Amino acid sequence: MPFHIILLTLLAALMHASWNALLRVGADRLWSMTIMCVAVAAASGVIAPFLGFPARASWFYAVLSAVLHVGYNLFLVRSYQVGDLGQTYPIARGSSPILVTIGASAFAGEAIAKSALLGIVLVSSGIISLAFKGRRPAVAGVPYALATGLFIAAYSVTDGIGVRLSGAPIAYTAWMSALWGVLMPLVYIALRGTSGLLAVRPGFGKALIGGLVSLLAYGIVIYAMSDAPMGAVSALRETSVLFAAVIGYLFLGETFTFRKMLACTMIAAGAVMIG
């Protein structure tokens, strides 16, 4: 994997951890996620017309990815509502790299080196181990966390194929994100109506910033997948859990136990093997 792709993907992981930290502290996470998508739609809508359209062959994948992103948003919010955040989030993020590797092999004919595959397994195992307190994770949140991981894998493979067909990674990202950003508020309205959607309440500014950060972070990931194996990029991106553990310790008052240190060591070792 090219060195600049490694650095960009790790930067995206740090940014991903940052916007998830913003979402974690919100009281109404569905509203926060929707406001983030409004910011994504606005920024993408401004940029996209100046970039032109990606190749027609990628349009189906852009639309499918936008729909899958909405499903991911809903299951992520739900997993935060019913499960322990510190357990369900690692399960969702840790399961996706292996699923992306399988999906990329099945649908894009992508092969991956044995050392990189071992690195992906290390990253996923380290991330999932963060979900355990004692011998088992909280059962209530596991189905939603696994479903979230499936959505992550599905939109990652979809975008990996789409961006390679697009001929224009930035344009593909902008148009896909604009559609995704529009769909999420429509789902919110269907669930709750329009009342209070755009109200400026506590957390509004943070949600807007989180949306812009998430857009830039995933744009980097899509660009990386245009030039590197999807499974390896996904595994490096999910080192965001490592960054999240550090952010939680430094800024959110979370503990940093020996188990977390061991898991972070596995994640770091896997990232080195992938690189």
Number of domains: 1
Instruction: Give me the count of strands.
Output: 0
Could you list the spans in which at least 5 consecutive residues all have pLDDT below 50? none
Rg, nearest Å: 18 Å
Topology order in helix (H) and strand (E) letters: HHHHHHHHHHH
What structural category do the secondary elements indicate? Answer: mainly alpha
Cα(first) to Cα(last) distance is: 6 Å
Proportion in β-strands:
under 5%
How would you describe the shape?
Answer: globular
Q: What does the oligomeric state look like here?
A: single chain
> Please, what is the average pLDDT?
84
**Residue share in helices?**
over 70%
Which properties best describe this structure?
mainly alpha, single chain, 275 residues, globular
Give the helices and strands, then pairings.
Layout: H1 3-24, H2 29-51, H3 59-82, H4 85-108, H5 114-129, H6 142-166, H7 169-192, H8 204-225, H9 230-237, H10 240-251, H11 258-274
Tell me what you see in this structure.
The protein is mostly helical and 275 residues long. The chain has one domain (3-274). The chain is built from 11 helices and no strands. It has helices at 3-24, 29-51, 59-82, 85-108, 114-129, 142-166, 169-192, 204-225, 230-237, 240-251, 258-274. α5 (114-129) packs parallel to α9 and α6 runs antiparallel to α7 (169-192). The longest helix is centred in the middle third of the chain and has 25 residues, at 142-166. The model has no long low-confidence stretch (mean pLDDT 84).
